[in-house]
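Side project, low priority. Logging it here so it doesn't get lost.
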Amino acid sequence: MSRVGKKPVPLPSGVQWNWQPPLLTVQGPKGTQTLKLKEGFDVQQENGSLMILRPSDEKMDKALHGTYRALLKNAVEGVSKGFQKVLEIVGIGYRAEIKGGDVLVLTLGYSHDIAFILPPGIKAQTVAERGQNLKIVLESSDKQLVGQIAAMLRSLRPPDPYKGKGIRYSDEVIKLKAGKAKGKGKK
């Protein structure tokens, strides 16, 4: 069996699951996630944990076994605890604010403001602390959705390699390049 696929996924209290092939639905306090599994795969509960069983030892089934287990683990963790990504906005005059609950308006040094519409299932808030960079906190029960939205927001103004201005992940380290050498050249 797959090393990842054979590990059981623990079910925390308050998390419900429903298996109606090919759909596996996981519900919890933070939301609901649905996984679609390939025909032949089965889900069973043993000792308060979920196990995914593969139909055969074919190469594709072996590959999907570990993938489905990882997706199930992320779904269970998402509906019980949730996922969060924090972005920082660095730069003078760069701002972000939330309007109407689902529209993030960004001022990033372009000639116009950018209105980014947040998809359903994701919550955003801005945190401004004195002496700190402005932070955007994204939360959802879907790990893939949080990562995708964070990457899309970062791509609107990636960090500049010379001054470090732009949108970056809070744990991202930007290695700054040296600028032009001053005083060198003709004499």
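Brief comment: The two ends are 72 Å apart (CA to CA).
Revisit when time allows.
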